[in-house]
Write a structure and sequence with these properties.
single chain; 172 residues; Rossmann fold; five-stranded parallel sheet; binds flavin mononucleotide
Length: 172
């Protein structure tokens, strides 16, 4: 059983990001893994204040233990202006304070939905690939749901099934 922690960045409750995440989570749970989900857009997470010894007490403290102990991390976001949403980025910036404890052996999946084509998500993939390399993590997969401005468009594609299949394989 792997500990899977999903961080989402969409402020839309039943949108495209949520659909991808739900499918991934079903797949991971179906194969006996423990899944925790944190929706950063609905949490009180303040932006990094640039202080290395961050003493800010907000909802980030509810996520920290899970993040550090996770075997698998999933970052799920709508594309906002060619990259991840600000909500998700603010949470990721706060990893800085966790330092070495976040580094090491973790598998990472990226789920994203955008109204434009998947090729226009390069801002997200370059950023995520940089973070993954810096942290010493392993990129295990991504679903880049291009041309999906809303759940109706997403439902006509294979992306949710891809997310489900990826979730099923997290333990492998
Ligand atoms: C502020 C904002 C900026 C956006 N920028 C982009 C973009 O640069 N590229 C893109 O493909 N879609 C963009 N979109 C469309 C969303 O990524 C798309 O509708 C996505 O499916 C929304 O996901 P959600 O339902 O989880 O919120 C933008 C949407 C908003 C609200």
């Amino acid at each position: 059983m792997k500990k899977v922690v999903i961080l989402t960045g969409s402020p839309v409750k039943k949108g495209t990001t949520d659909a991808l995440v739900e499918h991934f989570a079903y797949g991971a749970q179906a194969t006996g893994n423990k899944v925790e989900r944190f929706d950063t857009a609905f949490m009180h997470i303040t932006p990094c204040d640039g202080v290395r010894e961050c003493k800010v007490e907000d909802d980030m403290t509810k996520i920290t233990k899970s993040l550090v102990e996770a075997d698998v991390l999933v970052f799920a976001t709508p594309i906002y202006y060619f990259t991840m949403s600000g909500q998700l980025k603010i949470a990721i910036d706060r990893f800085f304070n966790l330092g070495e404890t976040m580094k090491g052996k973790k598998k990472v999946y990226v789920l994203a939905a955008g109204g434009g084509p998947a090729e226009a998500m390069v801002g997200l993939t370059v950023t995520m690939d940089g973070i993954i390399k810096y942290m010493g993590w392993e990129k295990a997969g991504e679903v880049l749901a291009g041309n999906c401005p809303d759940p109706g468009a997403l439902a006509k594609t294979e992306y949710c099934m891809q997310a489900y299949n990826m979730g099923q394989k997290v333990g492998m």
